[in-house]
């Protein structure tokens, strides 16, 4: 029993990055932020050696505004992929598999000359899954402890356990109980895992914090040969699965490619009563964003 608990915990402590069916559009960055403050102070010039060789990889569409990256994070090189524009300077072979196609394409194209640190993110500055009480991606990126990332090799940019823990997918049980007429991530995960990671045992339990935004080091990426990433992308290109399913498979699986599924999930904190208007010390935060 103890061994099983440890196995479950170990898998739960892995990252995978899952969006949940509790939201009407699984991949939507649908926080409407009509009242947010765009006058956030510019980031200070940073001179840490760990920061001097950082790149951000952004999965975007033509309609998304990504100017906030160069405005507030000018120290970092950005690689903005536009998945629905074949004429964009950075794009993908096929707009399929959501952000997974962007991430894999970047890794494949830059494998031999990667920066020391790569941050993979979505295009929206404000989104419900950003691990910031105000849903703002900038504080999350600014406060990222790059020395820790260099030491650990891989971190999820979302520390909050919900949604996805403590046991989101049980591959063996979910495959057996799956409905062939209505495929789900749970029912297809075991087969997809076996196809993507034939060198790894299928975990008994998979639990992850959403949502496909993470940082990795060059050494972590190159822990696997470039041929593996080519194979992952080919799987995306060839799979008959709908994008929402193939993309979710990778949300549950990035940690396997990066660190063989072993990653300590961080502790999390609850928000104070009255948030977001009231802060931890009972102070008024002058919050002017939406409350939904």
Biggest sheet layout: 5 strands, mixed
Number of strands: 5
Silhouette: globular
The order of strands across the largest sheet is 2-1-3-5-4
Give the helix/strand class. Answer: alpha/beta
Q: Approximately how much beta-strand content do the residues carry?
A: 5-15%
Number of domains: 1
Using the CA coordinates, give the radius of gyration. 19 Å
InterPro entries: DUF3431
Transmembrane segments: 7-27
Keywords: Membrane, Transmembrane, Transmembrane helix
Pfam family, one: DUF3431
Task: Characterize the structure shown.
The protein is an alpha/beta fold and 292 residues long. It has one domain. Helix content is 32%, strand content 9%. It contains eleven helices and five strands. The chain has helices at residues 2-12, 67-72, 99-110, 137-142, 146-152, 171-176, 185-196, 218-221, 226-238, 243-251, 254-259; strands at residues 54-60, 77-82, 117-122, 154-156, 214-217. A five-stranded mixed β-sheet has the order 2-1-3-5-4, with helices on both faces. Helix 2 (67-72) links the parallel strand 1 and strand 2. The model is unreliable at 1-51 (pLDDT under 50).
SSE blueprint and pairings:
Layout: H1 2-12, E1 54-60, H2 67-72, E2 77-82, H3 99-110, E3 117-122, H4 137-142, H5 146-152, E4 154-156, H6 171-176, H7 185-196, E5 214-217, H8 218-221, H9 226-238, H10 243-251, H11 254-259
Parallel strand pairs: 1-2, 1-3
Antiparallel strand pairs: 3-5, 4-5
């Amino acid at each position: 029993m103890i061994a099983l608990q440890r196995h479950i915990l170990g898998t739960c402590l892995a990252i995978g990055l899952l969006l949940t069916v509790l939201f009407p559009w699984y991949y939507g960055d649908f926080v409407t932020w009509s009242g947010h403050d765009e006058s956030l102070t510019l980031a200070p010039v940073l001179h840490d050696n760990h920061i001097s060789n950082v790149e951000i990889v952004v999965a975007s569409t033509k309609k998304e505004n990504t100017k906030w990256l160069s405005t507030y994070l000018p120290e970092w090189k950005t690689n903005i992929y536009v998945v629905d524009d074949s004429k964009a300077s950075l794009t993908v072979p096929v707009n399929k598999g959501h952000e997974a196609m962007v991430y894999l394409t970047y890794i494949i194209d830059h494998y031999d000359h990667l920066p020391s640190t790569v941050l993979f993110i979505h295009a929206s500055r404000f989104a419900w899954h950003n691990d910031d009480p105000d849903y703002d991606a900038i504080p999350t990126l600014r406060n990222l402890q790059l020395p820790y990332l260099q030491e650990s090799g891989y971190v999820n940019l979302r520390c909050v356990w919900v949604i996805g823990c403590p046991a989101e997918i049980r591959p063996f049980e979910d495959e057996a109980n799956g409905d062939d007429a209505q495929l789900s991530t749970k029912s297809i995960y075991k087969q997809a895992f076996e196809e993507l990671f034939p060198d790894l045992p299928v975990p008994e339990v998979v639990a992850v914090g959403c949502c496909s935004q993470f940082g990795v080091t060059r050494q972590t990426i190159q822990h696997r040969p470039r041929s593996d990433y080519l194979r992952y992308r080919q799987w995306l290109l060839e799979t008959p699965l709908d994008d929402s399913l193939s993309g979710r498979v990778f949300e549950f699986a990035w940690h396997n490619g990066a660190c063989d599924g072993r990653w300590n999930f961080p502790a999390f904190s609850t928000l104070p009563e009255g948030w977001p208007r009231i802060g931890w010390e009972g102070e008024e935060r002058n919050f002017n964003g939406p409350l939904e």
